[in-house]
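Entry for the shared binder. Reason: the reviewer on the internal report wants the predicted structure included alongside the sequence.
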Amino acid sequence: MNEQELYLEFTDTRWPFEYTDHDRSIARAIVYDKDRLFYFVRVRRWDDFGHGIFLETSGGGIDPGETPEAAVRRELKEELGAEVEITGKIGVVSDYYNLIHRHNINHYFLCKVLTFGDRSLTHQELTDICLNTAKLSYEEAISEYEKQRSTPWGDLVSQRELPILKRAGEILL
């Protein structure tokens, strides 16, 4: 991938800023297959952020001593059951969740699926968040991200991920 990596910063305009008490480094991926279909997680939440069903990239926290690349491979295996080839880094998105006083540093990778196997979700991911796999065309994914902007949580996720998905589309399509 020869394209310049993105670096984006977003604020949270849905909840008032009081303070930030922690940073969270996160590895996420735009995952695609040989047919240029994209894989996301569909999340059903009922928590302080509200209630809803949202599309989000697969990924999660980077453990101490773990590289972002190792973390994204681990997270994709856990959440999607996917073994992947990292084809490039799309960029970094810095954003805030004012409601929980957190600053997120999201490292986004472009990953091609090699194989699918079993997922290994936590009890919370299965029961509280109801994490499921969504397989979509590029156009379907863009449409879902746009639709979910009408809710506070969906807007935070879409603000962060739409530019990343659009960059992936420029690279792949």
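Summary line for the report: Strands lie at 6-9, 22-32, 38-47, 50-56, 58-61, 82-97, 102-116, 132-136.
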